[in-house]
Design goal:
By secondary structure, this protein is mainly α. The protein is built from eight helices and no strands. The model has no long low-confidence stretch (mean pLDDT 87). Its main location: mitochondrion.
Length: 210
């Protein structure tokens, strides 16, 4: 059966709520002091895009939703893995207390940068492909949605940079005298998260559901 390009009127409030949820949860990320809570709210924000795209019920929307679900599944998992590496060494998730870790773990700081850029949907990751499909679908459904999705994208970039700067830049706290070094298994774990995100762009049909 063909997909209905015009969802019933009953679905309009749900789509609006999903779009409003993107702005609300993205804004909540900007005031988080707990690292894991910030990452969790980030996931909710991205799933608002997915929910809106699924409800619109167009081929582009479903393709974008499938792609973004796979992409964010890897990205969010990588962010939680990075947060856990910080917690195992500092025993705190408070952003004000885990600053300046770039000085102690320069390679891990590179993983933080790459993962946050992926969370912002920077090319050449499939996150960008998924978001473009969804934003185009919603714009085609209703032109004003570009304002909400554009603001959501801007706030996502803001809190991703905020998360990176708060954890990596600045002066390291004096309470952390001896920090255990990172392990090969942790770097392998992050490689296995981020490598597919970069490689799948060469054959996105593997995850797009086409």
């Amino acid at each position: 059966s063909t997909l209905n390009p015009h969802p019933p009127n009953l679905m309009f409030p749900i789509i609006i709520l999903a779009l409003w949820g993107i702005l609300m949860t993205s804004s909540i990320c900007l005031r988080q002091t707990d690292l894991k809570a910030l990452i969790a709210y980030s996931s909710v924000s991205h799933m608002g895009l997915v929910a809106a795209a699924i409800i619109v019920q167009t081929p582009w929307g479903l393709t974008g939703a499938m792609t973004l679900m796979v992409a964010h599944g890897l990205t969010s998992s990588a962010l939680f893995a990075l947060a856990n590496t910080n917690y195992e060494r500092t025993h705190t998730r408070t952003l004000l207390l885990v600053r300046g870790l770039q000085l102690a773990f320069p390679l891990m700081s590179t993983w933080w940068l790459l993962t946050n850029l992926t969370n912002m949907a920077m090319p050449p990751t499939i996150n960008l492909l998924g978001e473009l499909f969804i934003i185009s679908t919603l714009f085609n459904w209703s032109t004003p949605t570009i304002i909400i999705t554009g603001m959501g994208t801007l706030i996502t970039a803001t809190y991703s940079l905020y998360m990176f700067l708060m954890t990596q830049r600045g002066s390291i706290s004096t309470q952390f005298q001896l920090l255990p070094p990172t392990h090969t298994r942790e770097h392998l774990n992050l490689t296995l998260h981020l490598l597919p995100l970069g490689l799948l762009i060469m054959k996105p049909a593997l995850v797009s559901g086409l």
